[in-house]
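[SOLVED] Predicted holo structure with calcium ion

Edit: marking solved, answer below. Original request kept for reference. I posted the sequence and ligand SMILES and asked for the 3D complex as C-alpha coordinates.
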Amino acid sequence: MKFKMIRNHTQRICTAILLILGIVQIFLACPQIVRAAVLIVLDGEFNDWAGQACFSDPAGDAASPQTDLLSYCFATNPNDPIAYFMVERKPSNKSVEIWLRVDVNNDGSYQSSQDRAIRIQYKPQGNHDSTTIDLFNGTNQFLKNLPDVGWGESNQDGGAKIEIGILFTDLGISVGQPLRLFFQSMQGDEPSDNTLEVQWSPADGLGLPILAGLLASAALWMSVQRGRSRA
Ligand SMILES: [Ca+2]
Ligand SMILES: [Ca+2]
Ligand SMILES: [Ca+2]
Protein backbone atom coordinates (compact mmCIF):
# COMPACT_ATOMS: atom_id res chain seq x y z
CA MET A 1 0.00 0.00 0.00
CA LYS A 2 2.77 2.40 1.06
CA PHE A 3 4.69 1.49 -2.07
CA LYS A 4 1.61 2.35 -4.22
CA MET A 5 1.24 5.77 -2.49
CA ILE A 6 4.91 6.59 -3.08
CA ARG A 7 4.55 5.50 -6.71
CA ASN A 8 1.45 7.74 -7.21
CA HIS A 9 3.20 10.65 -5.54
CA THR A 10 6.26 10.21 -7.76
CA GLN A 11 4.04 9.98 -10.85
CA ARG A 12 2.30 13.29 -9.96
CA ILE A 13 5.62 15.06 -9.38
CA CYS A 14 6.94 13.72 -12.70
CA THR A 15 3.77 14.87 -14.48
CA ALA A 16 4.11 18.36 -12.96
CA ILE A 17 7.78 18.57 -13.97
CA LEU A 18 6.88 17.47 -17.51
CA LEU A 19 4.10 20.10 -17.59
CA ILE A 20 6.55 22.87 -16.57
CA LEU A 21 9.16 21.62 -19.04
CA GLY A 22 6.47 21.51 -21.75
CA ILE A 23 5.49 25.14 -21.11
CA VAL A 24 9.14 26.23 -21.17
CA GLN A 25 9.70 24.27 -24.38
CA ILE A 26 6.70 25.94 -26.06
CA PHE A 27 8.07 29.38 -25.20
CA LEU A 28 11.59 28.46 -26.32
CA ALA A 29 10.20 27.10 -29.60
CA CYS A 30 8.16 30.28 -30.13
CA PRO A 31 10.47 33.12 -29.03
CA GLN A 32 8.13 35.69 -30.63
CA ILE A 33 5.57 34.80 -27.97
CA VAL A 34 8.00 35.67 -25.21
CA ARG A 35 9.39 38.80 -26.79
CA ALA A 36 9.42 40.71 -30.04
CA ALA A 37 12.10 39.38 -32.40
CA VAL A 38 13.63 42.88 -32.51
CA LEU A 39 12.82 45.83 -30.30
CA ILE A 40 11.65 48.98 -32.04
CA VAL A 41 14.25 51.74 -31.72
CA LEU A 42 13.70 55.32 -32.88
CA ASP A 43 16.92 55.67 -34.82
CA GLY A 44 16.05 56.28 -38.47
CA GLU A 45 16.81 52.63 -39.29
CA PHE A 46 13.81 50.59 -40.40
CA ASN A 47 14.94 46.94 -40.28
CA ASP A 48 13.40 46.73 -36.78
CA TRP A 49 9.92 46.91 -38.37
CA ALA A 50 10.32 43.57 -40.18
CA GLY A 51 7.72 41.11 -38.90
CA GLN A 52 5.62 43.73 -37.10
CA ALA A 53 1.94 44.44 -37.88
CA CYS A 54 2.07 46.32 -41.19
CA PHE A 55 -0.56 47.26 -43.77
CA SER A 56 -0.06 48.48 -47.32
CA ASP A 57 -1.84 51.31 -49.12
CA PRO A 58 -2.22 51.39 -52.91
CA ALA A 59 0.23 53.48 -54.94
CA GLY A 60 -1.19 56.16 -57.24
CA ASP A 61 -4.28 57.03 -55.16
CA ALA A 62 -3.10 60.42 -53.88
CA ALA A 63 -3.20 64.00 -55.13
CA SER A 64 0.59 64.05 -55.59
CA PRO A 65 3.51 61.58 -55.46
CA GLN A 66 4.96 63.10 -52.27
CA THR A 67 1.65 62.63 -50.41
CA ASP A 68 1.10 59.06 -51.66
CA LEU A 69 1.17 56.78 -48.62
CA LEU A 70 2.35 53.21 -49.26
CA SER A 71 2.38 51.41 -45.92
CA TYR A 72 2.17 51.78 -42.16
CA CYS A 73 3.01 49.63 -39.14
CA PHE A 74 2.46 49.71 -35.40
CA ALA A 75 4.12 47.93 -32.49
CA THR A 76 5.00 47.97 -28.81
CA ASN A 77 8.09 46.81 -26.94
CA PRO A 78 7.76 44.68 -23.78
CA ASN A 79 7.41 46.73 -20.60
CA ASP A 80 7.54 49.99 -22.55
CA PRO A 81 4.43 52.23 -22.38
CA ILE A 82 4.98 53.68 -25.84
CA ALA A 83 2.98 53.04 -29.03
CA TYR A 84 5.37 52.92 -31.98
CA PHE A 85 4.31 53.67 -35.55
CA MET A 86 6.00 53.66 -38.95
CA VAL A 87 4.54 55.30 -42.05
CA GLU A 88 5.96 55.12 -45.56
CA ARG A 89 5.20 57.29 -48.58
CA LYS A 90 6.64 57.29 -52.10
CA PRO A 91 10.32 58.31 -52.00
CA SER A 92 10.53 62.09 -52.35
CA ASN A 93 12.74 64.98 -51.28
CA LYS A 94 9.67 67.19 -50.71
CA SER A 95 8.16 67.90 -47.31
CA VAL A 96 4.82 66.40 -46.37
CA GLU A 97 2.25 66.76 -43.60
CA ILE A 98 0.91 63.43 -42.34
CA TRP A 99 -1.66 62.96 -39.57
CA LEU A 100 -2.02 59.89 -37.39
CA ARG A 101 -5.64 59.96 -36.28
CA VAL A 102 -6.55 57.89 -33.21
CA ASP A 103 -10.09 57.04 -32.10
CA VAL A 104 -9.12 56.64 -28.44
CA ASN A 105 -12.60 55.86 -27.10
CA ASN A 106 -13.18 53.43 -29.98
CA ASP A 107 -16.62 54.78 -30.92
CA GLY A 108 -16.06 55.14 -34.67
CA SER A 109 -15.57 58.92 -34.50
CA TYR A 110 -12.25 60.79 -34.35
CA GLN A 111 -13.75 64.06 -33.18
CA SER A 112 -14.28 63.76 -29.44
CA SER A 113 -12.03 65.42 -26.87
CA GLN A 114 -10.66 62.01 -25.77
CA ASP A 115 -9.50 61.26 -29.33
CA ARG A 116 -6.01 62.22 -30.50
CA ALA A 117 -4.46 63.49 -33.71
CA ILE A 118 -0.69 63.52 -34.19
CA ARG A 119 0.59 65.93 -36.85
CA ILE A 120 3.87 64.88 -38.45
CA GLN A 121 5.52 67.62 -40.49
CA TYR A 122 8.21 65.62 -42.24
CA LYS A 123 11.03 67.46 -43.99
CA PRO A 124 13.78 65.20 -45.31
CA GLN A 125 17.15 66.94 -45.71
CA GLY A 126 20.42 65.90 -47.36
CA ASN A 127 21.80 63.51 -44.75
CA HIS A 128 19.23 64.01 -41.97
CA ASP A 129 15.63 65.03 -41.44
CA SER A 130 13.90 67.92 -39.78
CA THR A 131 10.56 66.71 -38.52
CA THR A 132 8.11 68.41 -36.17
CA ILE A 133 5.48 66.39 -34.30
CA ASP A 134 2.53 67.98 -32.50
CA LEU A 135 -0.28 66.49 -30.48
CA PHE A 136 -3.93 67.58 -30.82
CA ASN A 137 -7.17 66.21 -29.47
CA GLY A 138 -10.14 65.16 -31.58
CA THR A 139 -11.66 68.64 -31.47
CA ASN A 140 -8.51 70.00 -33.17
CA GLN A 141 -7.25 71.59 -29.97
CA PHE A 142 -3.44 71.84 -29.81
CA LEU A 143 -2.16 69.97 -26.74
CA LYS A 144 1.63 70.09 -27.05
CA ASN A 145 4.71 69.67 -29.16
CA LEU A 146 6.36 66.24 -28.94
CA PRO A 147 10.13 66.72 -29.27
CA ASP A 148 12.44 63.80 -30.06
CA VAL A 149 9.69 61.24 -30.67
CA GLY A 150 10.24 60.77 -34.40
CA TRP A 151 12.93 60.02 -36.91
CA GLY A 152 12.57 60.14 -40.70
CA GLU A 153 14.76 59.04 -43.57
CA SER A 154 17.11 61.62 -45.05
CA ASN A 155 17.03 62.47 -48.75
CA GLN A 156 20.10 60.28 -49.18
CA ASP A 157 18.10 57.33 -47.79
CA GLY A 158 15.00 57.98 -49.90
CA GLY A 159 12.88 60.44 -47.92
CA ALA A 160 10.07 57.88 -47.62
CA LYS A 161 9.83 56.45 -44.07
CA ILE A 162 9.22 57.96 -40.66
CA GLU A 163 9.07 56.18 -37.29
CA ILE A 164 7.53 57.74 -34.20
CA GLY A 165 6.81 56.69 -30.61
CA ILE A 166 3.95 58.19 -28.60
CA LEU A 167 3.64 57.67 -24.84
CA PHE A 168 0.43 55.90 -23.77
CA THR A 169 -0.15 58.84 -21.40
CA ASP A 170 0.02 61.31 -24.31
CA LEU A 171 -2.48 59.15 -26.23
CA GLY A 172 -4.63 59.02 -23.09
CA ILE A 173 -4.80 55.21 -23.14
CA SER A 174 -4.06 52.36 -20.74
CA VAL A 175 -2.38 49.04 -21.57
CA GLY A 176 -4.58 46.81 -23.73
CA GLN A 177 -7.20 49.48 -24.43
CA PRO A 178 -8.79 48.96 -27.87
CA LEU A 179 -8.56 51.91 -30.26
CA ARG A 180 -8.85 52.65 -33.98
CA LEU A 181 -6.37 54.52 -36.12
CA PHE A 182 -5.43 55.54 -39.63
CA PHE A 183 -2.89 57.77 -41.35
CA GLN A 184 -3.84 60.70 -43.57
CA SER A 185 -1.56 62.82 -45.77
CA MET A 186 -2.44 66.41 -46.65
CA GLN A 187 -2.16 68.36 -49.90
CA GLY A 188 -2.36 71.92 -48.64
CA ASP A 189 -5.47 72.03 -46.44
CA GLU A 190 -7.14 69.05 -48.10
CA PRO A 191 -6.71 65.34 -47.29
CA SER A 192 -4.75 63.62 -50.06
CA ASP A 193 -4.43 59.95 -49.06
CA ASN A 194 -6.12 57.99 -46.25
CA THR A 195 -4.96 54.54 -45.20
CA LEU A 196 -7.37 51.86 -44.08
CA GLU A 197 -8.58 52.13 -40.51
CA VAL A 198 -7.36 49.39 -38.17
CA GLN A 199 -8.32 48.42 -34.65
CA TRP A 200 -5.49 47.79 -32.18
CA SER A 201 -5.02 47.20 -28.46
CA PRO A 202 -1.50 48.39 -27.65
CA ALA A 203 -0.05 46.10 -24.97
CA ASP A 204 3.19 44.59 -23.85
CA GLY A 205 2.29 41.35 -25.61
CA LEU A 206 2.85 37.94 -24.08
CA GLY A 207 6.01 38.66 -22.19
CA LEU A 208 7.93 37.12 -19.36
CA PRO A 209 5.28 38.03 -16.76
CA ILE A 210 2.83 35.70 -18.53
CA LEU A 211 5.43 32.93 -18.72
CA ALA A 212 6.05 33.47 -14.99
CA GLY A 213 2.29 33.28 -14.43
CA LEU A 214 2.06 29.97 -16.28
CA LEU A 215 4.96 28.55 -14.29
CA ALA A 216 3.34 29.74 -11.07
CA SER A 217 0.09 28.02 -12.12
CA ALA A 218 1.98 24.79 -12.78
CA ALA A 219 3.69 25.04 -9.38
CA LEU A 220 0.31 25.69 -7.71
CA TRP A 221 -1.19 22.68 -9.48
CA MET A 222 1.70 20.54 -8.26
CA SER A 223 1.21 21.82 -4.71
CA VAL A 224 -2.53 20.99 -4.84
CA GLN A 225 -1.74 17.51 -6.10
CA ARG A 226 0.71 17.05 -3.24
CA GLY A 227 -1.96 18.13 -0.78
CA ARG A 228 -4.44 15.64 -2.27
CA SER A 229 -1.89 12.83 -2.10
CA ARG A 230 -1.37 13.57 1.65
CA ALA A 231 -5.12 13.60 2.36
CA1 LIG B 1 14.10 51.99 -36.04
CA1 LIG C 1 -1.45 55.53 -51.44
CA1 LIG D 1 -13.82 58.67 -30.74
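OP edit: The first strand starts at residue 53 and ends at 56. Thanks to everyone who chimed in.
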